[in-house]
Amino acid sequence: MVVRLQAHAFKKDPGDVTGAFLPLAEGDVVIIDSITICGLGYVDPSKFERAVVVSKFVPRVTKAVPVARRLYGDDRFREVAEEYLRRVKCFKRGPHKLCVAPYGMDYQEALKIIEERSVRRGLPEEVILAHELASAAGLWLTRAPSPLGS
Fold this sequence. Notes:
A hairpin with a 3-residue loop joins strand 2 and strand 3. This protein has one domain: archaeoglobus fulgidus dsm 4304 superfamily (archaeoglobus fulgidus dsm 4304 fold, 2-Layer Sandwich). With 150 residues, the protein is α+β, with helices and mostly antiparallel strands. The protein is built from five helices and six strands; from the N terminus they run αββββααββαα. A four-stranded mixed β-sheet has the order 1-4-6-5, with helices on both faces.
């Protein structure tokens, strides 16, 4: 298995950021933990040949629809959110609950991919690594300036 990582800097609430991730997905499955990124930025998993949205819970994406409409002036986020909610199903996997929304594959194939890529905590390693990197970057970016000037 080859894992490709890429970092992007997005402003808060950037809208549809799917295009930034399409080059990473050529011929491979994309595993993401949410359709939302950077506040109200979003990824449309249907644009990838094969994608799995996997998390420990179903995010309340419908609460963001009115704000997204105000920010972006269209209903694209609502359409992406509704499609995600139509697809997502939650499963018990050992002690963990996993919520899975497959695109371009069935649930069995999605669960097999998750199983192959999970070593700990029930989530695929890509998702765990992405969370850890995002948390570390967030802490670094929001830390208070040092009184020593460094």
